[in-house]
Write a structure and sequence with these properties.
Layout: H1 3-25, H2 29-32, H3 35-65, H4 70-99, H5 108-178, H6 184-199, E1 207-208, H7 209-227, E2 231-237, E3 245-246, H8 252-261, E4 270-279, E5 282-290, H9 303-315, E6 320-326, E7 330-338
Parallel strand pairs: 2-4
Antiparallel strand pairs: 1-3, 4-5, 5-7, 6-7
Helix pairs in contact: 1-3, 1-5, 3-4, 3-5, 4-5, 5-6, 5-9, 6-7, 8-9
């Protein structure tokens, strides 16, 4: 149901309750007058209140209060209330003074006092209801905008990851083809499998963790082919159930950063150790790599890690922890995510 329909239903329920209250309050007229006067009394009172409420919500509020013309708003409200008092009090005086007659002691000032304060009370309730519904509608709008903004930012960040990754892999493939390496077809096959994942599966908000790890393993194997025996690379994963899901391409920046700014900068004795395990609903990922002593991993223009931080904040706010340790000859990244 749309918000407009909900508002209509709530306002309708409010006036049904108000009408029911007056029907109960004026039930003694059934004995002192007759049925038509009983319904006329309630109908006139509720009808006048509805008119005042309509003027307040649709004319006075947007025309005066919303524009901070408080004096004009108060004057308009008082004028409408006084008009109501004149009509309602004259009708009450006629009803109780002439129709009901001696069975009811009619008092004009008592009627005016009762109608004045009861009118202000019902107007206050209606205003509170109106402001509550507006606040609720605003919260729904803010929530929808926030969700749309989150999806837009995640899509933008994902779009940044893909070209960055492809640029590195194509460079690797280019180097192998220059050497006429027999490993090139295997690289193409693995890259094809990864492209299928990136083009189709990665568009989902969440993907099976098993697919994400398979994608990551293919990436590591491609890099292992490039480095050969010049680097010690290990990739260990624990048991992962088929029901666990994760945001796509979330772990790649940690591994990609280790290759690009660690192993690629070394000529010998380079190493990379990747460990990913699942403890209940908590994912632990640890990536540790060697690096030259004079090279800092806090490089300029680090798209991958910057994107990772933003995506974690957007998708796992309050449910993640990323620790980066930049030592003299090693760089270690530890990521914990509550899936």
């Amino acid at each position: 149901m749309k918000l407009f329909d909900k508002k209509t239903a709530i306002y309708g329920a409010y006036w049904i309750l108000v009408t029911g209250f007056f029907l109960y309050e004026k039930k003694y007229l059934l004995y002192k007058a007759n049925l038509p006067y009983f319904f006329a009394c309630v109908g006139v009172r509720v009808g006048l209140l509805i008119i005042i409420a309509y003027l307040n919500l649709h004319i006075f509020l947007p025309k005066y209060l919303a524009k901070k013309r408080y004096g004009a708003y108060v004057s308009a409200i008082l004028f409408s209330v006084l008009t109501y008092l004149v009509i309602q009090s004259l009708y009450d005086y006629y009803l109780y003074g002439y129709i009901v007659g001696p069975l009811y002691n009619s008092n004009m000032w008592e009627s005016v006092s009762y109608n004045f304060f009861s009118t202000l009370w019902y107007l206050a309730l209606m205003l509170a209801l109106k402001l509550s519904l507006d606040w609720y509608g605003q919260q729904l709008l803010i929530q929808r905008i926030t969700v749309e903004k989150l999806h837009a930012e995640v899509d933008f960040l994902r779009a940044q990851v893909n070209p960055h990754f492809l640029f590195n892999i194509l460079n690797n493939l280019y180097a192998l083809t220059l050497k006429k390496s027999e490993l090139a077809p295997d690289v193409v096959l693995k890259l094809s499998s990864m492209m299928e994942y990136m083009l189709y599966d990665s568009n989902d908000e969440k993907v099976p963790l098993t697919k994400e790890l398979e994608y990551l393993n293919n990436y590591v194997e491609l890099e292992r082919l490039r480095f050969g025996a010049s680097a010690v690379i290990t990739f260990n994963t624990g048991q992962v159930g088929p029901g666990q899901k994760i945001a796509p391409l979330l772990l790649l920046p940690l591994v990609e950063n280790a290759f690009k700014h660690g192993l690629s900068k070394q000529t010998a004795d380079s190493a990379l150790h990747i460990s990913i395990s699942l403890h209940g609903d908590t994912l632990m990922a640890q990536v540790e790599n060697t690096k030259p002593a004079l090279v800092s991993s806090q490089y300029k223009g680090g798209i991958g890690l910057n994107n990772l931080r933003k995506r974690l904040e957007l998708l796992y706010q309050g449910r993640h922890d990323l620790q980066l340790q930049d030592q003299v000859t090693t760089y270690k990244a530890t990521l914990r995510i509550e899936l």
